[in-house]
Every structure is written in structure tokens, then in C-alpha cells.
């Protein structure tokens, strides 16, 4: 390469640097803005279940009024689960990936999915916090059940349960929940839709990923790159996002610049946060 061409190329690279730095700062600022909004979304999503699940449980009490035990009429249980959700507005719009009837021993009798992989499994073994609902109160917790996962390999679930009472006694539990991977997908789709709707005619849509950080794991949508999750965890997200503060940084993943935003999501429990990755295109 001639000296003249080297000088010209160097000039082009230098001229591009301010634009690169500006793009990094924009991605970082927007990622912080996005994650703050998504944490508000998580609070709304959980509130729908907190308000709706006890109401739905009231509709399921009818299963225990007849002479046939629910375990002996599983089609009726499935029908009742569908009706209970449809009759409660908060449950109709809830982001749950399953609703289930759980007996006093923790056995899942039936859920509302066409392919019920959870039936016959013990909910208390996977989600110990749910057992406290037998005392007559609404509870929330988390754990992991392979049959409730939405991706192969590692996945976990956020769960909740409300007591079903009949004759003055708790007869069973009305349980619901969502897989972390499915919930990350829900948040990611919501964010992409919001960002896309706000773009001008000449603006390009940024690359966006959303992960849910639970203790030492980061769960993304089923098709999200694992390298992204590892990059997020390498920044000690829960350690740096304390209280109500947003942690943000400009990072690089496989040669691409991203803005990272992390904020704790207390509605989802202790040591849970939402993380957003954004890159300008």
C-alpha cells in the first residue's frame, strides 16, 4: 500500500472513531432506559397473578363439591382449569406458561396444557415454597422442574399458588408459573415492539436481547446466544445492580459493541434481575 493510501485509510478510521464512541454511549444509555421500563413490566405481570389466582381458586372449589374425587375425573379437572382462567380477567392476560391443580401431597393432577408433561410430578419437590399455601395463604417461589421447562438443558421457573377451599378446609392448590426462558422471550418481544414503534422512517432497528438473571444464572429466550448470557454474568450483574439502581456498561461480545443495562426485579423475588443488551445496527 502506498504511503498516500495509508494516510487516507488512517484518516477514514480516525473520522469513524467519534461515531463509534457515540454509538456505544447511545446503546448503553438506551439499554439502561429499556431495563428500567421492563422491571416495571415485571411488577405488573406479577400483580396480575397475585390478584387473579385467589379468585380463580374460588371457581375450582366446585371440583370438591361432588361425589367424584378430582383425581378420578381428570377431564373435568382440565375443563375446570380452563374455566377458572377464563372467568378471571387478570388470569386471562397473565403471562403464565401453565396453570395446574395440585393435591395436598403436592402431586400435580393436571395442568391446562394439551401435552401435560407435569401430571404425576410432585410440585413440592421442585418448588418447596408452594407447600405453605396449604396453610390457607397465597405464596410465591421458584425452583426447577424439567417438565415445566421451555428449553432443553438448564431452565427454571417462577411459581405461585393459592389454596382451594371447600367445606372450610384446604383441599388442593391452584398453581401457576412461567419458565424463565419463556418469560425472557415475553420481555424481549415487548421491548422490540416498543422500540420498533418509536423508530423514525430513516432509523434502523437496533439488535436487542433480554435475559432474566436468577442468582448465578442468566436465562434468555430459547434462541438467544449463550455467549451473551456468559458475558452478562461476567459483569457480576446482581453485585453491581443494588437496590433500585440501574447498572449499565459498554461491553463487547464476539467483536460487536453492546450497551448493557441491569436492574433488580424485586417482584420476581430476591436475587432476580432483568438484563438488556442493545447494539446499534
List keywords for this structure.
5-stranded antiparallel beta sheet, Beta-Lactamase, 281 residues, alpha+beta, disordered N terminus, elongated, 7 helices, 2 domains, 25% strand
Describe the structure.
With 281 residues, this protein is of the alpha+beta class. The protein folds into two domains: 23-43 and 182-279, 2-Layer Sandwich (Beta-Lactamase); 47-179, Beta-Lactamase (2-Layer Sandwich), CATH 3.30.450.20. It is 39% helix and 25% strand. The strands form two sheets. Strands 2-1-5-4-3 form a five-stranded antiparallel sheet. α1 packs across α2. It is elongated and about 70 Å long.
What does this entry show, briefly?
With 281 residues, this protein is α+β, with helices and mostly antiparallel strands. Helix content is 39%, strand content 25%.
Question: What characteristic shape results from the CA principal axes?
Answer: elongated
Q: What is the name of the CATH superfamily of the largest domain?
A: PAS domain
Approximate helicity band:
25-40%
Backbone CA Rg? 23 Å
Enumerate the strands of the largest sheet in spatial order, edge to edge or round the barrel.
Answer: 2-1-5-4-3
In this structure, how is the largest beta sheet organized?
Answer: 5 strands, antiparallel
Distance between the termini: 30 Å
Spell the H/E element sequence.
HHHEEHEEEHEEHHEEE
CATH class of the largest domain: Alpha Beta
Provide the low-confidence segments as ranges. Answer: 2-17
Percent in strands? 25-35%
Amino acid at each position: 500500500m502506498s504511503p498516500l493510501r495509508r494516510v487516507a485509510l488512517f484518516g477514514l478510521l480516525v473520522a469513524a472513531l467519534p461515531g463509534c464512541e457515540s454509538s456505544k454511549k447511545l446503546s448503553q444509555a438506551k439499554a439502561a432506559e429499556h431495563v428500567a421500563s421492563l422491571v416495571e413490566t415485571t411488577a405488573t405481570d406479577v400483580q396480575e397473578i397475585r390478584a387473579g389466582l385467589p379468585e380463580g381458586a374460588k371457581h375450582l372449589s366446585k371440583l370438591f363439591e361432588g361425589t367424584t374425587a378430582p383425581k378420578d375425573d381428570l377431564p373435568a379437572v382440565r375443563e375446570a382449569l380452563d374455566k377458572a382462567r377464563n372467568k378471571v380477567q387478570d388470569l386471562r392476560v397473565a403471562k403464565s406458561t401453565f396453570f395446574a391443580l395440585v393435591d395436598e401431597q403436592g402431586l400435580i393432577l393436571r395442568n391446562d396444557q394439551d401435552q401435560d408433561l407435569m401430571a404425576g410430578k410432585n410440585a413440592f419437590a421442585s418448588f418447596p415454597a408452594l407447600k405453605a399455601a396449604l396453610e390457607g395463604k397465597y405464596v410465591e417461589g421458584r425452583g426447577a422442574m424439567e417438565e415445566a421447562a421451555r428449553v432443553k438443558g438448564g431452565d427454571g421457573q417462577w411459581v405461585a399458588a393459592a389454596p382451594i377451599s371447600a367445606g372450610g378446609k384446604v383441599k388442593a392448590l391452584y398453581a401457576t408459573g412461567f419458565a424463565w426462558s419463556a418469560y425472557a422471550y415475553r420481555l424481549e418481544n415487548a421491548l422490540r415492539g416498543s422500540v420498533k414503534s418509536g423508530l423514525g422512517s430513516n432509523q434502523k432497528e437496533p439488535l436487542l436481547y433480554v435475559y432474566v438473571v436468577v442468582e448465578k444464572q442468566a436465562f434468555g429466550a430459547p434462541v438467544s446466544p449463550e455467549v451473551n448470557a456468559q458475558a452478562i454474568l461476567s459483569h457480576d450483574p446482581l453485585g453491581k445492580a443494588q437496590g433500585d439502581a440501574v447498572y449499565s456498561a459498554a461491553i463487547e461480545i464476539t467483536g460487536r459493541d453492546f450497551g448493557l443495562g441491569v436492574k433488580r426485579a424485586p417482584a420476581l423475588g430476591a436475587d432476580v434481575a432483568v438484563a438488556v443488551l442493545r447494539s446499534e445496527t
